[in-house]
Amino acid sequence: MIELKSLTKVYPGGVKALDALDLEIRDGEFFALLGPSGCGKTTLLRTIAGLETATSGQVVIGSKDVTHVQPGARDVAMVFQDYALFPHMDVTDNISYPLRIKKVAKPARTAKAAEVGARLGLEGLMDRRPGQLSGGQQQRVALARVMATQAQAFLFDEPLSNLDARLRLEARTFLKKLQRELGVTTVFVTHDQAEALAMADRMAVMEAGHIRQIGTPAEVFQRPANTFVAGFIGSTPMNLLDGTVRGETLEVAGCKVPAPAAGLRDGEKIVYGVRPEYVTYSVEPVDGSIAGKVVLSESLGASHLVTLEAAGETVQVIVPEGDEPALGDEGYAVPRTDRALIYRDG
Length: 346
Ligand code: ADP
Ligand code: MG
Description:
This protein is an alpha+beta fold. Helix content is 25%, strand content 35%. The strands form four sheets. The protein has a six-stranded mixed β-sheet with strand order 6-7-8-3-9-10, sandwiched between helices. A hairpin with a 2-residue loop joins strand 4 and strand 5 (64-65). The longest helix is centred in the middle third of the chain and has 18 residues, at 165-182. It is elongated. Residues 11, 13, 15, 17, 35, 37-43 line the site of adenosine-5'-diphosphate. This is Multiple sugar transport system ATP-binding protein. GO terms for molecular function: ABC-type transporter activity; ATP binding; ATP hydrolysis activity.
């Protein structure tokens, strides 16, 4: 288990990378840390590893307060974004390097490297140097080096970002499966929401040194806690439309739509959120629909992402391939009320 208590990191020069952050990562879980570039993900990971010292707050690993413990004594292993392999060492030596630091004898080190290397499909490459390996192979060596240490927790800093799209998908499945088998607590940093949703048992969404939401991928996808998370999660961002409460309905983009929640205050200004996946397109007006004009239509393969302009707002709708309207058509976006959300932080 990893616990961060009111963790703050201010860099010399005054950048507050982590702001009184609280987080509990459970034993054995695959935890994804998601957020845009610069939000503090790497800093968080390095502070857990002990490569950065906390300005204030606590880091607890497995019920031991390690806030002031040296990195080498924290029993966590980190994979860096650029893998940080030693160019002059072969695969065996790269994998077994942490064991050399721990003064494990050479035959035992080599045996361990061979065992872990085989598990990661590196047999036959053990004598090569990093420069003689593909990006995907280098990444596996970095993983193998972490696994050889048998740490209490693995920390991954965007480990898939240097792979091309197809390899990245393969590595995703591979890494997830491996983590399941090993059952080692894993913190996985990414700026790719699809990666976090696909891989995590639970995830946190970060913004500017703060955690904006913690939950399972399903919880975060279905019920984003605020407009930041809503706009960040999903292959197409959620529609977020300014609205005003009018009794049982909402006035959104000049139209009346049913309120998805009870107890709203008449006249209150809100933000109405609904994913494009949960909005259908209609040629004819329908009760509770939003009238607009088609300004953009992008193919997603089996479907189209259609953008409507409606009274100064932009509404996106996913339409099955073949049913997409033409540019300039006047039509109606029909949101699913049971999938719509109300926000007050817009
Ligand atoms: P992320 O990994 O999410 O992209 P980082 O943790 O690398 O974010 O950075 C968080 C913030 O801290 C950024 O504003 C970044 O510029 C700043 N920062 C990171 N490392 C240092 C450093 N060594 N010195 C000063 N500022 C830093
Ligand atoms: Mg980073």
